[in-house]
Amino acid sequence: MMNPQQQVQDLLNFIDASPSPWHVVQTVETRLAAQQFEKLAETDKWSLQANGRYYVIRDDSSIIAFIVGSKPLARHGYKIIGAHTDSPGLRVKPKAANQEGGLLRLGVDIYGGPILATFADRDLSLAGRISYKTDSGKIASRLVKFDQALLRLPNLAIHMNRGVNEDGLKLHKQNELPLILATANEQLPQDYFYSLLALAAGLSPEQILSWELNVYDTQKGAIWGAEQEFYADSQLDNLASCHAGLTALLDKNNATPDKTLVCGLFDHEEIGSESSKGAAGSFLSDILERIASGTKHSREDYQRSLAHSFMISADMAHAYQPNFPAAYDASHRVLVNQGVVIKSNVNQRYSTESMSAAMFIDYCQQANVPYQTYSHRCDLPCGSTIGPIISSKLGVRAIDVGNPMWAMHSIRESAGVLDHGYMIKVLSCFFAD
């Protein structure tokens, strides 16, 4: 059994190996394969066995892993943990490379709602997937990752921006976000960029047809604080929840469950989940229905199973930051290292309701895990999660929970060491019950 610091170091290793949603799924797949999970293809016919361990990937950046329970679905349902593989940030535009002032730059687009100022003066690089034509003429994809610092967004000197400390750093989204890549040379900018991608991917430039590239921070995650009680990395929202859910699924105590256990990690949450592989798409419902049919259950049995099911939507929560007390509801300040957070919103931006909250509190009590409750200020817009989306689509009872963190959507986020262990413990208890 790992102690909390070991669990967090494993999380940091997980994040640092996963600088894009496509790499997240690759990292998850590696861990599943090491625990004898079998990969299934949606194009194949399935025959599933009780206590069989399986996973399915859709379009490289969403993955659903499950263990078939030994008891009938129609009477016991699914136990589901959901999280998301994507994080806010910058993505490279299709015709990205351009030349200006003797420099080669990459044009970027804004994915989701990042804190743009945090990308300035960081050692940035690229990771994602490349789509290309094989020697046999087929279209395929390949992951690519530049390990070295490749890009930078230099700040404007204070001598030219005298009000920056009073007004904050404001970056024009079109004109001031292009990232410096290299000194201009004799090659056309786009040709130079293609050659870099080709070299990293082990392809020829002529093979490359398109790409999806994420800008990431090359600084590794770290445990910090006088008592080593905090940790920092990129993408804590929401890879910390992905790691906790996966760790719970792989807990040896959950190897032969009575009920069918499902861990779904979805792309595109940060931009609304409306895609074929997002939580608002058909991926989860398709897989749940195929689990039912693959274990000889009828369509009616499947619908009955949903009525018996319960889902925990695990996403991060806003920890109280004492420098900014006015940003919080004074009665709902959740604190780092004080336990997992139950997130509530009367307008159903979170899926929590009284019964699902009571059920989760019971799991916390069984696991001896502290919990907190969070509600957003009424005069500030509240974010949302995959919880309400999946709950409404499937008709399953659900709750939204998360761990408290600072600087959500910064390129460098922070959270508490103890809380990650708490989340793993209660999710493992949920799956084991």
Fold topology:
Elements (H helix, E strand, L loop, with lengths): L3 H13 L4 H14 L3 E3 L12 E6 L3 E6 L5 H4 L1 E7 L4 E12 L2 E9 L12 E10 L5 E7 L18 H4 L11 E5 L5 H13 L6 E10 L4 E3 L5 E4 L2 H14 L10 E7 L16 H12 L4 H9 L2 E5 L2 E2 L21 E4 L10 H14 L3 E4 L11 H9 L2 E6 L1 E3 L6 E4 H16 L1
Parallel strand pairs: 1-2, 4-13, 4-14, 14-18, 15-19, 16-17
Antiparallel strand pairs: 2-3, 3-13, 5-6, 6-9, 7-8, 7-10, 11-12, 12-20, 16-18, 19-20
Helix pairs in contact: 1-11, 6-11, 9-11
Distance between the amino and carboxyl termini: 19 Å
Largest sheet: 9 strands, mixed
Number of E-type strands: 20
Give the CATH level 1 class of the largest domain. Answer: Alpha Beta
Helix content: 25-40%
CATH architecture of the largest domain: 3-Layer(aba) Sandwich
Residue ranges: pLDDT <50 for 5 or more in a row? none
Class from helix and strand fractions: alpha/beta
The CATH topology name of the largest domain reads Aminopeptidase
Task: Determine the CATH superfamily of the largest domain.
Answer: Zn peptidases
Explained architecture:
By secondary structure, this protein is of the alpha/beta class. Helices cover 28% and strands 27% of the residues. The protein has helices spanning 4-16, 21-34, 73-76, 164-167, 189-201, 236-249, 283-294, 299-307, 354-367, 386-394, 417-432; strands spanning 38-40, 53-58, 62-67, 78-84, 89-100, 103-111, 124-133, 139-145, 179-183, 208-217, 222-224, 230-233, 260-266, 310-314, 317-318, 340-343, 371-374, 397-402, 404-406, 413-416. The strands form four sheets. It has a nine-stranded mixed sheet, sandwiched between helices. α1 (4-16) crosses α11, α6 packs across α11 (417-432) and α9 packs across α11 (417-432).
